[in-house]
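Structure record:
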Amino acid sequence: MDEVPKQAGRILVADDDLASALLTETVLQSGGHEVVVVNNGSDALAAVEGGQFDLAFMDYHMPRMSGVDAARAIRAREARLGLRRLPLVALTASAMPDETLLCTEAGMDEVLVKPFDLSELLRAAARWIEAGAQG
């Protein structure tokens, strides 16, 4: 993998596919990040409500609550409580323009289409953690 700037952060990963979640967690940990993994959007929302994260990666399709619905709920909570904006990156296996549009309309900051290069995951993490630290 390419070397990427390392600014360690606390990252939430929401993905219902165990293998994908484990790979994402392992790659992010290799970049020095602390990673919390949940397997659905409801648990992602609860994790955000209960903890401090620098970034969240969320799968588009998940049971109980999709990544898009979780993103909407997170953005609504931030607006209601006057909280800082948590960077949200969608992870999806579909490159369909309508899914990408739904993600951005829900408040996702970026969309990564699976399969993506593992260094792309680390670059996205570094980019959004750095942006959050500056803003």
Summary: Residues 118-134 form the longest helix (17 residues).
